[in-house]
Design goal:
mainly alpha, Four Helix Bundle (Hemerythrin (Met), subunit A), 4% strand, globular
Length: 197
């Protein structure tokens, strides 16, 4: 009899489990590190693109603010107000596979794949919440608003173990993975500020 040559999927190893406090600390550190890096930039760099075709630090901050604004809308919607959610871009049946492969690799390596694009809901001045974004040319106000919004989301996730957030590729993500993915996302954008391409 010949060998069974059927291909099997190879997934990255499951990231080690962390306590909620460790997850929260990692998330909080990532937000504060981004804010410190952005605050230390020269004033002229705030509205300037980090590279041709790239977002400026101001736009990156708006992108992160929109990420947390939509997360907050999912976790604690205002009665009668709009409830924003990220629209899925891949079929629902594929989402668990992508969580097990791509998302697990992102969390393990602490990096997003090259060329990953933000969904339209999270693009500066384009998302559904962009019109109400309080971000202006005043850098300190923008960063304060971002860190406050991130802290709100973190508190809500910590208070609700069954909470889930929507992702355009991975679908509904559980609390622990959401905290880890948000931290990786913040670090990804901090690196863009630290060493623009």
């Amino acid at each position: 009899m010949g060998e069974d040559t059927q291909a099997t999927a190879v997934f990255p190893p499951t990231p080690p489990r962390m306590t909620l406090e460790t997850l929260r600390a990692g998330h909080r550190d990532s937000v504060l590190a981004f804010a410190r890096t952005a605050a230390a930039l020269p004033e002229a760099a705030w509205p300037a693109a980090t590279a041709p075709g790239r977002w400026s630090p101001e736009e990156i901050t708006q992108h992160l603010w929109l990420t947390y604004t939509i997360a907050l809308s999912e976790l604690a919607p205002h009665p009668g107000g709009p409830r924003h959610r990220i629209r899925p871009r891949v079929p629902r049946l594929m989402q668990p596979l992508l969580r097990l492969s791509v998302m697990r690799r992102i969390i393990r390596d602490g990096r997003f794949p090259e060329g990953a694009r933000a969904p339209s809901e999270l693009r500066p001045t384009a998302g559904p919440a962009a019109a109400s974004t309080p971000l202006t040319a005043v850098r300190g106000d923008a960063l304060s608003s971002l860190t406050a919004r991130a802290a709100q989301v973190e508190e809500l996730l910590a208070a609700h173990p069954g909470a889930r957030l929507s992702h355009h590729i991975f679908g509904r993500i559980g609390r622990d993975d959401a905290l880890r993915l948000l931290a990786v996302h913040n670090a990804h954008h901090q690196r863009q500020l630290s060493s623009p391409a």
